[in-house]
């Protein structure tokens, strides 16, 4: 069974700059309204199980989950990795770690 990898904000920043990455924000609507990491798609945690087959496509593309503190996104990453999806990552510390590392947010776009 495949497992996910925890990465920190600096590793995520480098990953986003170096290769094609699918970035998934699993926070609630009210949290996302405060801003997202640029390029992120918003898929609330509750829809991850129904999106599993779609998220399992493109094994060569990095798939990174994040939330507020890294707990919900770790669950999402573990779920998808459990479906034998490779290259699955979790942002350790969530968007809080991203902000603490000095990286910016952008407004959520629909």
Automatic annotation (TrEMBL):
PANTHER family: THIOSULFATE SULFURTRANSFERASE RDL2, MITOCHONDRIAL-RELATED (PTHR44086), THIOSULFATE SULFURTRANSFERASE_RHODANESE-LIKE DOMAIN-CONTAINING PROTEIN 3 (PTHR44086:SF10). Gene3D superfamilies: Rhodanese-like domain. Pfam families: Rhodanese. Signal peptide: none annotated. One of its GO terms (molecular function) is thiosulfate-cyanide sulfurtransferase activity. This is Rhodanese-like protein. Residues 17-107 form the Rhodanese domain.
């Amino acid at each position: 069974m495949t497992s996910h990898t925890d990465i920190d904000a600096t590793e995520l920043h480098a990953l986003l700059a170096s290769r094609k990455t699918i970035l998934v924000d699993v926070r609630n609507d009210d949290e996302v309204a405060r801003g997202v990491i640029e390029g992120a798609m918003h898929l609330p945690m509750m829809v991850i199980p129904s999106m599993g087959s779609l998220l399992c496509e493109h094994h060569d593309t990095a798939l990174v989950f994040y939330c507020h503190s890294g707990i919900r996104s770790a669950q999402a990453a573990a779920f998808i990795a459990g479906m034998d999806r490779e290259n699955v990552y979790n942002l350790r510390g969530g968007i809080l770690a991203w902000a603490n590392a000095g990286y910016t947010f952008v407004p959520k776009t629909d």
